[in-house]
């Protein structure tokens, strides 16, 4: 399971560490093919995790978080010409009507998709999933706002696309047992975290592990991933360090000084 954000030659400074260039992205797709990796839709992995048909060996799944405009202009054509599926997780507050700009998310300014582009991508067969309404750290939120970020995101997407959406991705990868329970209650049937592990058919479908592809993910590391090396395999128990980091972030959020997310926009 590979997690991408932006594919661009000129990202905003805050997004640059999570951006790969179109040339590098195309090379990575070719490396997957050369290694005999079959890119399958996320739903096939989820079905296997839920006891359905087993996956063949050497598969990969491509996911993209947030909803940057370059998915429409750069990523989609590269995937389409290779016949590859992908799941696009949208922060719905950042998606905007054509000709306008979205301002309903905590993400700093960046070129984001508009609703017409989202509908086109959906029509072309790309899987659209939810990535919250405003991109907060879900595991630091109170019950009311948590429900809104999870359930309202689903309602907005289904109203816009006129069909069910079933897959969610936690902003920043942050989740907890309480967050996963709310995701399940809202009707999402799968959810992606980060963990920087290989996923597997034994992975938790509400905490699917992904490997984050960053600007500094060199070809050697990517080759290791393609070969099934260089990272542990999920599922893995939550570490004490992760629990402590969650407590610290909750305390910081409670006093109005959140940490652990993207840089805050300047006043």
From TrEMBL:
Give the record's GO biological process terms: carbohydrate metabolic process
Q: Which domain of life is it from?
A: Bacteria
Q: Name one Pfam family in it.
A: Polysacc_deac_1
Q: Which residues form the NodB homology domain?
A: 58-267
Keywords annotated in UniProt: Signal
Q: For this UniProt entry, what is the primary localization, expressed as one broad class?
A: secreted
Q: Does the keyword Signal apply?
A: yes
Which cellular components does GO assign to this protein? extracellular region
Q: Where in the cell is it found?
A: Secreted
Instruction: State a single Gene Ontology molecular function.
Output: hydrolase activity, acting on carbon-nitrogen (but not peptide) bonds
**Which InterPro entries does its entry note?**
Glyco_hydro/deAcase_b/a-brl (IPR011330), NODB_dom (IPR002509), Polysacch_Deacetylase (IPR051398)
Q: Does the keyword Signal apply?
A: yes
Q: What is this protein called?
A: Polysaccharide deacetylase
């Amino acid at each position: 399971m590979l997690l991408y954000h932006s594919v661009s030659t000129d990202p905003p400074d805050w997004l640059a560490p999570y951006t790969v260039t179109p040339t590098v992205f195309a090379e990575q797709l070719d490396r997957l093919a050369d290694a005999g990796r079959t890119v399958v839709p996320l739903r096939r992995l989820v079905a296997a995790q839920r006891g359905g048909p087993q996956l063949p060996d050497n598969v990969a799944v491509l996911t993209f978080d947030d909803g940057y405009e370059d998915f429409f202009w750069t990523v989609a054509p590269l995937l389409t010409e290779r016949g590859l599926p992908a799941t696009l997780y949208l922060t719905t507050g950042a998606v905007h009507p054509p000709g306008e700009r979205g301002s309903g998310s905590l993400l700093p300014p960046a070129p984001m998709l508009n609703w017409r582009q989202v509908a086109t991508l959906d029509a072309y067969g790309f899987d659209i999933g939810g990535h919250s309404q405003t991109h907060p750290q879900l595991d630091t939120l109170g019950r009311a706002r948590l429900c809104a970020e999870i359930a309202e995101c689903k309602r907005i997407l289904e109203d816009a696309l006129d069909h069910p959406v079933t897959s969610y991705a936690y902003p920043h990868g942050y989740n907890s047992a309480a967050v996963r329970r709310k995701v399940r209650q809202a009707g999402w049937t799968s959810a992606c975290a980060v963990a920087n592990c290989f996923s597997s058919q034994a992975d938790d479908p509400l905490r699917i592990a992904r490997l984050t592809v960053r600007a500094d993910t060199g070809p050697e590391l990517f080759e290791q991933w393609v070969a099934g090396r260089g990272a542990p395999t999920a599922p893995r128990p939550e570490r004490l360090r992760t629990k402590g980091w969650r407590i610290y972030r909750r305390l910081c959020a409670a006093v109005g000084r959140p940490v652990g997310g993207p840089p805050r926009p300047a006043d």
